[in-house]
Design goal:
This protein is α/β, with parallel strands linked by helices and 457 residues long. It has helices at 10-22, 27-31, 42-56, 63-69, 79-89, 96-124, 129-143, 156-171, 184-190, 209-222, 237-249, 253-258, 265-276, 291-305, 327-345, 377-381, 395-398, 438-443; strands at 198-203, 228-232, 281-284, 309-313, 349-354, 384-389, 401-409, 415-422, 427-430. A 9-stranded mixed beta sheet has the order 3-2-4-5-1-6-7-8-9, with helices on both faces.
Amino acid sequence: MSNYRELYSDEAEHALLGALMLDSDLFDSITTSVATADFHDPENAALFQLMLELHATGSPIDPVTLHDFKPVLPSGGPTIVYAGVLAKNTPSTANWKAYARTVRERAVLRRLVGAADAVRDLASENRPVAEIVASAQQAMADLRDLDTGEPDYKRMDEVIARNVDVIDAKFNGALQSGLSTGLLDLDKLIRGLRKKTVTIVAGLPGSGKTTLGLQIAQHIACSGAGVGMVFSLEMPEEELGNRALASIGGIDLRVLDDGQLQDDDWPRLTAAVQKIMDKPLYVSDKSGLTVPRIRSICRQIKRKHGLDVVVIDYIGLIGSDGKAFNRTSELGKISTGIVNIAKELDVPVILLAQLNRDSTKRPGKKPIASDLRDSGQIEADAHCIILVHRDMDDEQGQNGVTELIMPKCRHAPVGSCLVQQQGKFARFVNFAGREPSQEEVEISRPFADQYKGRKGK
């Protein structure tokens, strides 16, 4: 490439390294401005890294001390000769900021070219266009903070000043702490869905986690609180649509599936359609979506319609980029990627997950956070974890009583609440009964009288 030299500047790299040797007071300023990876010439990168390591020992930096610390550079040449020439030829330490800016900017350009080359390689491999676009957008996202010019730190009083404005807005009712889930006791428990957070909703198969996730997005969109995006990697969009109609209209899901509506079902269906018509709730049932593709779709929605909540059902079905060593490592990368989406797009993400069956083997059968399948990084990344627990071996579980257990939350104390699952309507409603007394817990027969004739399957 004839213009490749424009992507680096040996002169700037040499002058910056020389400034480090000539003025020890510049060390912190320069080393926070550039990194080893910003140097194009491997010899320059090696010398810069050597300076970092030598400084960490408390020694001064000059050609002699560098040579004593490591006499030979990767090229095989003596350290003292190369470092000495750079120090001698540095025109002025006063211009170090210009040198650092040049080194940093050329590094950004090289990474942009590298990203473009990677996209070109994907295109030459005849990959799907959607995958190529998603990879390109991800590459640009990875570069977005490389040269913002913004400091990596803020004074605490700046942070507090913004916080006080937010606190005042909440006090005056102009701002809510978070989005409502539509379930009163759950809202009290988690204190609202917060922006830039990831809430894990996990449960055993059939526990109702999909119902809960879809219902929350549905409530936010249909109540006028915001725009919802649901990724259903397992359930087709037709089934999602029927679940929404059943939930909003209070219509038996089985009736919608087989089309055998009774006379009183039709007005409920009409009312449900009217409630959801023109509401900003979007769905995608594409299977095997990767994190970059999910991020790309979310960005499209946010750009065109705005975006206030994302639901992903579920983490175990998110596609892999094939670079991880094992599934646990893959899920860790996926989890971290979802956290980054929440931060970048400034929205709460509800990420559904499966629980392993360890909980069914312990007394009480209540799940704990470590029951998350291949948990590790998922448990660590989550801002909030909600475990959906419905014990079908006891009477209250058979009647739809479901406990939402919150073993972790960064903005609220841990705890739990009860909700009533109405399975035939594919929804949860506020729990209308009472919590069991200690005596009832011990004999394992709470709620028995309250739930006769109220089964929700």
